[in-house]
Each structure stands twice: as structure tokens, then as C-alpha cells.
Amino acid sequence: MTDRKKELEKELDDIQKEIEVSLNDISNDIHRWTDARYWVHRYPLQMAGASLAIGFLLSTMIGGKRKSSNGGRGGLTTLFVSELGRYASRSAAKYMVKLIEENVERTRRANEV
Q: What pTM did the predictor assign?
């Protein structure tokens, strides 16, 4: 009876450890899939294009509504979206330049060897 109880306790502990590992793996996956740096590193060109497109769409949608409702003057929201779009564009461009420079440097080193 005690041997069976010990077996069941060990089996229960093993199952609990497997569940903890699985939950930890799921948590890590969720963190990675929701981390913007992961996506930018994995798909730099697509993310740069997406950030430009989103910035453009937001500025067009919000900017167009603001201009028509207040006689052409830009509001705070329009200014914010515009600056956000500029920042996203600059950040995407800087990141692309950095990737290209790293690629060129890597190629140069490989050719030297």
C-alpha cells in the first residue's frame, strides 16, 4: 500500500513538473511573440514598412478629420500622430542603416579571411 502511494506521489510530482515546464515555455513564447524587438529583428524590412504605413494611415485618418472639423488648423492629436509617424520613420531608417552596415562589415570580414 505504501509503495503504491509513493509511486502515485512521484507520478503526481512528475506531472506537476511537466505542467510547470509547459507553462514556463508558453509564457516565454507569449513574451517573445508580443515583443516588438523580436519582430523587428526577425523581419526588419517588413516592420519598417508596417511602421511607415501605420504612421501614414493614422496621420491621414486623424489629420483629415481634424482639418475638416476645425477649419484646417491642426490639433494636438494631429501633431502627436504626425510626430509619432516621423519618429517611427526615423527609427526604421536608422535600424535599416544599422543592419546594412553590419551586413557590409560581416561580408568584408568574410572576404578578408
A: 0.37
